[in-house]
């Protein structure tokens, strides 16, 4: 081949490649530069292992949780929940409560964070217990000895679980748009609280700041077996809602053996759907206040 002709062909090819590259760059510039970042952020809420990683990061930052408890949360809760939607923690209250309730607190923290970042459309939360919610019966950042079993009151690790959630639950109560926090309990359960606890709770209910809080007394003597706990239904804007639910004894019963039941997955999961249906029916059939989960 003639050398001059070869150089011309090579120059032409290089020019074509350069033009193609420039045009590709121009078209690429029309895309939203934040698209990949937004997709990644959204995936945290729709990808449970990623969400659990973020929850674990929050727990790690809490220097008040002992290393042994941190390890137990990882081994007994986070790792199993990354593979299935329902787990059971069994053992003495002194061992299981710090694991279960610290995890619950971190979930509350994470949900509030994502709601603030507009990564969640809405949250329907419900604390459903035989007595009004323990965190709202205690002053902020405190844990009254009357609000827990005498055995538990001697254990700083368990006392911390109450004091910490007096903060996260109040943040939920005062959040406003995008969050509803129902506190459901049998009417008779109020008498199980001391005068100080009742007064603290009523102040929270009557506070103008707690725009998300819905006091929901029930026409029941006692909740159905296994229902005592809390449930959080998260609308991420996708086709299916995400649910976190936990069941266990209230702090006033915090002694001896306490088993905890934890559900974490999509609302359409059969076990999760059944639990949410039981909760919704129990509230809507026994209260003037109605909760909408489905």
Helix-and-strand structural type: alpha/beta
Give average pLDDT, whole number.
88
Q: In DSSP terms, counting alpha (H) and pi (I) runs of 4 or more, how many helices?
A: 9
What is the CA–CA distance across the termini?
Answer: 75 Å
Q: Tell me the strand percentage band.
A: 15-25%
Order of helices and strands: HHHHEHEHHEHEEEEH
- As a whole number of angstroms, the C-alpha radius of gyration is 25 Å
How many extended strands? 7
How are the strands of the largest sheet arranged? 1-7-6-5-2-3-4
* Percentage of residues assigned to helices: 40-55%
Largest sheet properties: 7 strands, mixed
Principal-axes shape call: globular
Short key terms for the protein model shown above:
294 residues, alpha/beta, seven-stranded mixed β-sheet, 9 helices
Write the layout of secondary structure elements.
Layout: H1 3-28, H2 35-46, H3 48-61, H4 67-81, E1 86-89, H5 93-116, E2 122-128, H6 150-153, H7 156-173, E3 179-186, H8 195-206, E4 213-218, E5 229-235, E6 242-247, E7 260-266, H9 270-284
Parallel strand pairs: 2-3, 3-4
Antiparallel strand pairs: 1-7, 2-5, 5-6, 6-7
Helix pairs in contact: 2-3, 3-4, 3-5, 4-5, 5-7
Kindly describe this structure.
By secondary structure, the protein is of the alpha/beta class. 48% of the residues lie in helices and 15% in strands. A seven-stranded mixed β-sheet has the order 1-7-6-5-2-3-4, with helices on both faces. A hairpin with a 6-residue loop joins strand 5 and strand 6 (242-247). Helix 4 (67-81) packs across helix 5. It is globular and about 45 Å long. The protein starts with a helix and ends in a 10-residue tail after the last helix.
């Amino acid at each position: 081949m003639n050398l001059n002709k070869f150089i011309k062909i090579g120059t032409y090819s290089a020019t074509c490649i350069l033009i193609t590259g420039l045009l590709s760059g121009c078209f690429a510039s029309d895309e939203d530069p934040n698209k990949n970042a937004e997709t990644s952020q959204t995936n945290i809420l729709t990808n449970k292992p990623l969400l659990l990683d973020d929850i674990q990061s929050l727990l790690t930052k809490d220097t008040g949780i002992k290393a042994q408890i941190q390890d137990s949360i990882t081994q007994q809760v986070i790792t199993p929940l990354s593979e299935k939607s329902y787990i059971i923690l069994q053992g003495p209250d002194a061992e299981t409560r710090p694991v279960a309730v610290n995890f619950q607190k971190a979930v509350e923290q994470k949900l509030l964070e994502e709601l603030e970042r507009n990564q969640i459309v809405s949250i329907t939360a419900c604390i459903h217990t035989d007595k009004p919610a323990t965190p709202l019966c205690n002053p902020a950042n405190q844990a009254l000895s009357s609000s827990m079993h005498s055995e538990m009151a001697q254990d700083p690790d368990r006392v911390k679980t109450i004091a910490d959630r007096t903060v996260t639950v109040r943040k939920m109560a005062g959040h406003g748009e995008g969050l509803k926090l129902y506190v459901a309990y049998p009417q008779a359960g109020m008498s199980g609280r001391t005068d100080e606890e009742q007064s603290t709770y009523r102040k929270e209910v009557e506070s103008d700041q707690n725009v998300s809080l819905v006091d929901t007394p029930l026409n029941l003597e006692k909740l159905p077996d296994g229902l005592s706990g809390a449930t959080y239904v998260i609308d991420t804007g996708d086709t299916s809602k995400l649910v976190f639910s936990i069941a266990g004894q209230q702090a006033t019963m915090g002694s001896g053996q306490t088993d905890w039941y934890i559900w974490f997955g999509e609302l359409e999961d059969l076990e999760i759907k059944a639990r949410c249906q039981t909760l919704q029916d129990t509230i809507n059939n026994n209260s003037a206040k109605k909760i909408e989960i489905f």
